[in-house]
Amino acid sequence: MNNQNKIEGFEVLANSKSNRIIDLHLKDEFIEKLVFPFKRFDITALEYKPFARFTLAKNLDDLTQNKLCKLINSILKDRTKGCFVLKTNNQNKKIDDKFLVKLATAITHLIGVPNHDSMSGKYYARFFVKHEDNSDSYLRKAYVNMDLHTDGTYVNENTDWILMTKIEEKNAKGGETVLLHLDDLENLKELSEDPVGRQNFIWSSPKSKNVDYKVEHPVFIKDKNDNINISYIDQFPEPQNIQQGIFLQRLSDSLEESDNKITTRLPIGSAVVTNNHFWLHGRKPFEKNENLSRELLRIRGSFSN
């Protein structure tokens, strides 16, 4: 990386899996500098007082000489990149679940404003993936492939970006993270120019999401720079005719069969942050294990004006 990307407290590296992804390694010695600002606000204060979240974010950015905010926003808004992986030393005893919630809070509030997560009733959601599951979506189903998708397809809020942190993982084999940059989809031109993909689809969600309305929008839309963006998840569209149904099947098959998917195992304590308009994400199935447990943290939202 060039000198402009040298940041106090972080090591900035190219990702080994893709030149579209940037790795940010949080240095152990920098954690000591985070102790005071992170102790200033407990989790309840962050949940109840939105301004405290921005204070925490500013404290983090100040410790990097105000370079971190600029870097992560430049990565996410760069069409050729749009993704970074934040890594911590999970052997460091000061990095626990509270630290990871606060770190994710600070990072995301340097990017923008999180959406209200209706599933949890907070600005973030924490959830487990375990051996047994009675939920109504793929989110917690350990032994089913979670196909590539974007977030926020069924809500009114803009979902420009998403952060996912792995808080805990025990007895887990499989379950690798899968990513795909939209521009690397082999038949993107064919699919995005299909008139059906530009039609409004109806999108709903299961009861566990706590969203009691439906929205309408296309799968593909062009941004102000004439780039193709996508808003899609396989479980939530309600096709109204055979043309829409067949189009969604073609899209699903193309995404899952792409040779350009990136499969990676994220260590405990790491977070992946993507531009939700042109990065899709998913998860491979786990191997069956009655003692399987993975806890994830999710924050998603819009860019600051």
Structural class: alpha+beta
Largest sheet: 8 strands, mixed
Number of domains: 1
- Helix and strand string, N-terminal first? EEHHHHEHEEEEEHEEEEHEEEE
The proportion of residues forming helix, as a percent range, comes to 25-40%
How much of the residues is beta strand, in percent? 25-35%
Low-pLDDT parts are none
CATH topology: Double-stranded beta-helix
Principal-axis shape equals globular
User: CATH superfamily name?
Assistant: Clavaminate synthase-like
Number of strands: 16
Radius of gyration: 19 Å
Which terms would index this structure?
single chain, 305 residues, alpha+beta, Double-stranded beta-helix, 7 helices, globular
Task: Indicate the topology.
Blueprint: E1 10-14, E2 21-26, H1 28-40, H2 43-48, H3 50-63, H4 68-76, E3 83-87, H5 97-111, E4 112-114, E5 125-130, E6 146-149, E7 161-170, E8 177-181, H6 188-192, E9 201-203, E10 215-217, E11 220-222, E12 228-230, H7 242-257, E13 262-264, E14 271-275, E15 279-283, E16 293-303
Parallel strand pairs: 2-3
Antiparallel strand pairs: 1-2, 3-14, 4-16, 5-16, 6-15, 7-14, 7-16, 8-13, 8-15, 9-10, 11-12
Helix pairs in contact: 1-3, 3-5
Short description:
With 305 residues, the chain is α+β, with helices and mostly antiparallel strands. The chain has helices at 28-40, 43-48, 50-63, 68-76, 97-111, 188-192, 242-257, and strands at 10-14, 21-26, 83-87, 112-114, 125-130, 146-149, 161-170, 177-181, 201-203, 215-217, 220-222, 228-230, 262-264, 271-275, 279-283, 293-303. The strands form four sheets. Strands 1, 2, 3, 4, 5, 7, 14 and 16 form an eight-stranded mixed beta sheet that branches.
